[in-house]
Amino acid sequence: MKDLTKKNILKLKQSSTLVINEKCKKLIKEGKKVYQFGFGQSPFPVPEKIVTKLKDNAHRKEYLPIQGLERLRESISNDLRKKTGISYPKENIIITPGSREAMLLFHVAFNGEIILSAPSWVSYEPQAIIGRNKVHWIQTSSENNWFPTAKQLEKKINSIRKKNLLFILNSPNNPSGTICKNLKELSAVAKKYNLIVLSDEIYTDLTFCNKYESISQFYPERTIISGGLSKWCGAGGWRVGFFAVPDKLSKLLENIKTLASESYSTVNSPAQFAAVEAYEGDFEDYKNKTKNILRSVGNYVYNHLKSNKVLINPPQGAFYLMPEFPNKKYKNSQKLCETILDETGVAMLPASDFGFNSKKMLTRLCYIDFDGASFLKASQNGSILKDNIIEKYAPNVVEGVQKLSNWAKNL
Hey, how many other C-beta atoms are within 10 angstroms of the C-beta on 230? Predict the structure, then answer.
């Protein structure tokens, strides 16, 4: 069994989100016009006050505690309490090199089985395989905003018949850009069956309705929250993430700390000191402006792409949309995306990378192919930005969507 599992690990492919980014760079280097709708990296600069703190602490060279800088953990604890009303004390928080690493260590430490809903982030399943945990999928629909219903979750639990189960929930969702509207109902099922819930809240500060909602508000006793600076703060390359763990799962936290000590040791010191500013400073104006830009661009894409040839839910958070191209021309979504890239220059990811059947003609469209620093200079009043502003500051998005829309008309 171990050999078979080892073979499965060695068969894993590189993360498709990173691969599409490298492919786009290669095509651009070859002189081809590419509309980069494949890679989910924030287009906005890190707020200057946070950058200054990084510079001010560049001399920090000491190893910080495995669990992370105490003040940073305290600031994250306070931030979560303010947003959710739930207390995750600093002793229950661990700082990790991005939330991806936190999840990987969790999968290694966790001994059970995993429930994922399609669509799910590309790394959830591969990490479960690395951790040698079996994955069970729930297929969702646009009618329920691409999230499972409570009935679906309960049915899946009963079909597995295992006691130690983990349910991963990501809202706003990557890849759909939608938010979960039935958190309370899902939490009731989770509580009934004593599930562990991993609430991936890396995009929650980018919710367009400006309401921070977490399943921890309904089921705090066994909900782990993951987050970090990569999305709302634009600091993906800084690799600062965290896990907030409830008291009842303290053993898991201890196991993760042990794994951290034997892998990355500690998150880099200057970034941790700078992250304190990110969680303690006032960046509401920055957040509001970036969210309004993302909401406006997302709505532009939605309004100019939706048709009887392209089915799509409106944008609700993060910077993704998940258009569907119903047709019988292509044998799978991978071939669909390859053809679209070849014929239009628009780079997207196929739905099969996110847990869907390969024959489902869905793609992930990431609408951030623009200069975020320039866009932040645009005049805003909190309302949806007009088309002429988007055309000025996001010309690649406008042109790429037009090409994609024209292409879809021939399906």
Answer: 22
Q: Is the pLDDT of residue 203 over 50?
A: yes
Quick check: 16 pLDDT over 50? Answer: yes
Reduced 3-state DSSP string for the chain: CHHHHHHHHHCCCCCHHHHHHHHHHHHHHCCCCCEECCCCCCCCCCCHHHHHHHHHCCCCCCCCCCCCCHHHHHHHHHHHHHHHCCCCCHHHEEEECCHHHHHHHHHHHCCCEEEEEECCCCCHHHHHHHCCCEEEEEECCHHHCCCCCHHHHHHHHHHHCCCCEEEEEECCCCCCCCCCCCHHHHHHHHHHCCCEEEEECCCHHHECCCCCCCHHHCCHHHEEEEEECCCCCCCHHHCCEEEECCHHHHHHHHHHHHHHHCCCCCCCHHHHHHHHHHHHCCCHHHHHHHHHHHHHHHHHHHHHHCCCCCECCCCCECCEECCECCCCCCCCHHHHHHHHHHHHCEECEEHHHHCCCCCCCEEEEECCCCCHHHHCCCCCCCCCCCHHHHHHHCHHHHHHHHHHHHHHCCC
pLDDT tens per residue, range 260-289: 999 999 999 999 999 999 999 999 999 999
pLDDT band at 156 (very low <50, low <70, confident <90, very high): very high
Over its C-alpha atoms, the chain yields an Rg (Å, rounded) of 21
Nearest to 37 by CA among 346, 274, 326: 346
| Mean pLDDT for the stretch of residues 19-37 | 77
Contacts of 386 (CB under 8 A, 6+ apart): none
Cα 55 to the chain's mean position, in Å?
28
pTM: 0.93
pLDDT at 2 (0 to 100): 43
Tokens encoding 100: 């991806």
For residue 172, whether the previous peptide bond is cis, meaning omega lies within 30 degrees of 0, is yes
Domains and CATH numbers, the chain: 2-45+284-408 (3.90.1150.10), 62-280 (3.40.640.10)
Q: What is the pLDDT of residues 239-250, one digit of tens each?
A: 999 999 999 999
